[in-house]
Specification:
Lantibiotic immunity ABC transporter MutE/EpiE family permease subunit, transmembrane, 250 residues, Lanti_perm_SpaE/MutE/EpiE-like, globular, membrane, transmembrane helix
Amino acid sequence: MGTYFKSEYLKVKHTFIGKLVFIAPLFSMFLSFMLTSQYFEIDSYNWWYVMLLPGMISILCTSVAAKDKKMKNMAVLSLPVNLRKVWVAKILVCVCMTTFAVMIHLFGCIFIGNILGIGKLGAISIINAVFASIVLIITFLWQVPLCMFLGSKIRMFSTVLINLVGYLILGVLLAIYNTLWMVPYAVPSRLMIPIIKVLPNGLRAVQESQTFRPELLSYSVILPGIIITAVLFVMFSFFTAKWYENQEAR
């Protein structure tokens, strides 16, 4: 499996995809620093999981899937390789690059917000920032195999559009309601409310904010949210790997 992973990673190592994992988190921090520096950390996190992280994952995954798709997968179909392992390796590459991007965002926010002390009105404790980033990695994993599959079927633009609509509209609107469990796009925004104390619309989770309710600060939603998205990741990985493997017979 290690050989498959190295092969897939080398395909994207020196491409725009490799630079994207730096550009996306840095841009999120740049926007927050320039536009709302007093609330630097909470706004940087909010823009990160509502818009920039979904967009980055969409572009990353569709690009990884498109590497072989451009040649109608002949580069792998003509070789004595296990196609299921090839697909799983692609998923793992995307997971690792997504994790790396989230870590860049985490350390950048800690350095600017906690060490330099910028944005004290929107400060997040280091422990909560670390916890938030770990939860974001887990709750976004299901997007990786899904976006790779969609990228293979409907291309990058449509995949990015679906994801942005899902997170920017459905995620923000439904995260504060109990129906959020039917829409996994809303899970990250909902789980961030008790962790970093910010609502999906970017307002602080305090009594004076519109749409705020005290029960939104309950940590009881975190474990169900993690379980749901983890199960989706396993399911999508299994079924898309099976789909990819079946191309050998076509």
